[in-house]
Amino acid sequence: MEKKNFTTSVTEFVLLGLTQRPELQPFLYVTFFIVYINTWLVNVIIITTVISDYQLHTSMYILLANLAFIDISESSVSTPKLLSDLLSERKTISFSECILQMFFFHFFAGAMGFCLVGMAVDRYVAIYKPLRYLTIMNRGVCMRIVALAWLVGLAHSAVQTGLLLQLPFCGPNILDNFYCDVPQVIKLACTNTHLAEIQMNFNSGLVIIIIFIILLISYTVILIKIRTHVTEGKNKALSTCGTQITVMCFQFIPSIFIYAWPIKQFALHKLFSVIYSVITPMLNPMVYTLRNAEMKKAIRRLLNRMLFSRWERHT
Length: 315
Known about the structure:
By secondary structure, this protein is an all-alpha fold. The chain has one domain (2-310): Rhopdopsin 7-helix transmembrane proteins (Up-down Bundle). 75% of the residues lie in helices and 3% in strands. Helix 3 (59-86) runs antiparallel to helix 4. It is globular. The relative contact order is 0.14.
């Protein structure tokens, strides 16, 4: 009973936000508002296009639509709170909301990691087994990859938040970030957190490193195949892979510094948090999806149908 009262004595956390300089907050608000709206707009267009265009009902585009949904979801966990706090003098979040924010953030982040692995497998099969691609990566296999990605994200997030809920919080309650995240919250626990820190490093840091290595190996193998066997469109394919690797590094390297590094505050942790929680969800569709010729044609078909339908209603 004493432990329970001790654990729930903190009812809210105070967020220090991105900056303590009020003159920068309007500029940051406008910047991140544009980023957030663009993230929603582009990803909703991708999802709508894949759903409405029967020609895109293949594993590659289903996985891209799933990635677009994850991007919207992950961005919506932290960005609205960031935007509202940039307009507020006192930035607070309740204990329950903090736990929920961490749960959903790691839920979507875990699903995204495994979705990217599934997309790499899909591209590997398409390049190395082109004649058997549709047989190997059929609708059933694709749906199992999507379901497994969400289950992995759920399991990862449940472990992370479960570890935190076992810790007592009695103060202090100040988080030097713009949203709740495990490394900062753990440090506020009123107990020895060494074991919890090791578990967090293992559950998040090690998993991120493993996924990152798998993706790097996959893209390396794909690049070798493109350089040695592809003749038509080689430069474009190499450019596409190179861009995807760059964005993947933008996403995973900051995450490695946040979750795999020993738990301590460092100068760039807020910048890294912004990159992988706000910026990357906007970059993913531009790099993984909108560079695809078939997707661009399908989006134009969708827009033409919408414009034609509206024109018919007005005539």
